[in-house]
Amino acid sequence: MSHSTNMLSHNNGSLNNRTAMNIEKQGYASTRFLMIMILMASTTLMTLLSGGFLQVSAMDTEIKAHLSEQDAGQPERIALTGATIYTMDPERGGEPIQNGTILIENGIITAMGEDVEIPEDTLVEDLNGQQIYPGLIDAFSRMGIFEIGAVPMSHDIDEQGDVNPNVKPERVVNPDSRHIPVARSAGVLTSVVTPDGGIIAGQPGAVRMDGWTWEQMTLQSGLGLLVNWPSPRRNYSEDVRELQNVFEDARAYHTAKKAFEAGQADRIDLDSRWEAMLPLFEGDGELPLIVDAQEVRQIQDAVTWASNEGFPIVIMGGRDAHMITGFLKEMEVPVIITQVLTSPSRNWEAYDARYSLPAKLYNGGVMFAIAGDASPENSNRLPYEAGASIAFGLPADEALKSLTIYPAQILGLDDRVGMLKEGMEATLMITDGSPVEYATRVHQTYIRGAKSDMMDNHRKLYERYRKKVDEWQSRKD
Length: 477
Hints:
- The chain has helices at about 1-75, 180-185, 215, 235-260, 270-275, 295-310, 325-330, 355-365, 380-390, 395-400, 405-410, 455-475, and strands spanning about 75-85, 95-105, 110-115, 125, 130-135, 135-140, 190-195, 200, 205-210, 220, 225-230, 290-295, 315, 335-340, 370, 430, 440-445, 450.
- The chain contains twelve helices and 18 strands.
- It is of the alpha/beta class.
- The strands form three sheets. Strands 1, 2, 3, 4, 5, 16, 17 and 18 form an eight-stranded mixed beta sheet that branches. Strands 8-11-12-13-14-15 form a six-stranded mixed beta sheet, sandwiched between helices.
- It has a domain at about 135-460: Alpha-Beta Barrel (TIM Barrel).
- Strand 13 (about 315), helix 7 and strand 14 (about 335-340) form a beta-alpha-beta unit.
- Residues about 1-30 and about 45-70 have low confidence and may be disordered.
């Protein structure tokens, strides 16, 4: 019995050894097979990628050729005649040009006035008493980076982490956003695409409201550095100190890079975040701070800190700005008002606190622009944000300036858009009245001299159901 047991144990041991050897061989073979498969897959992938890159390159060439053909298809010279032209040019004193003409060549205004000589081979558009205004500027928007609220995949407004000065949102703008044509039909022809989130959200960029690609749409990248000033309601001192530390790190990086460039340091570790902030420490206001601040303490602390650091600053939000107009005027700090058409945020405020805010800043001598609530689906309401302020004390011409020349001046765009003047882009709208009046219709827009398609989602739905009503009415008759 013992012998049999020993034999069985020996046989089992031999079996176990052979099994282990087989498993080891199979494992080696499996590993070798896996490595071969990975190598084959890598080779195939590289081949596909190489072909893909060639296809993308060819596609890119084809797109550029198509865009060149499209630009070439636009008339080189256009004359808009017989219109009342509201230039918004401060040098003209606000007086409109009656029965005026605008001559556009290659997207640029080359002549404007009552007696403009029109060259041959010019496409002439007779506007027959209509009005021409500069395109409106939405100075605070998520246009093209936020599509549908209930679909997170259509949101691209913020990034991971709290410090993202290198984020430039215009690069991810969706040119096919359904909100762009709707806003364009309301006369909003330039949108300042603004990121969100963290301490430093990124750098807003100005985009034209028409184009095939983000490159074609971009008017100017890096308008400023967007800083979300800490809320006084929680850990205020600690959060402000954290913000200051970020700028101290960026300044130290600037100093280290200068030392490296001067040959006083062996190396420098590249950091794209601090690289994006270098213009703050170089030049004269090349990269201003755009600080999101609402309450008095936030605004005062932000302005004082920026002044001590030597940074130019723009306040965005500015709910309580009317309480410190003297301070803002003295410090020469402009304000981008976000939302006029909204209710008071505190129960002790008057019902018209936000409606009358622009008039209070105007009376206090503070430069300001009016923007909406950033949601792209409401960008077409921008004219009414300014229009509502007229009923609460803001002069009508100031309301219009707050959507055109003022935001252009605040954001450094006034050499291209915001007013109509020789040498500037022909970005304009043709209307039957003032853009800030609710009943006004925008008949046509031009963006850098290109005639826009005025069809949008709202108009499609209107025409669809207008047809249904007409059919029902005809059956009734």
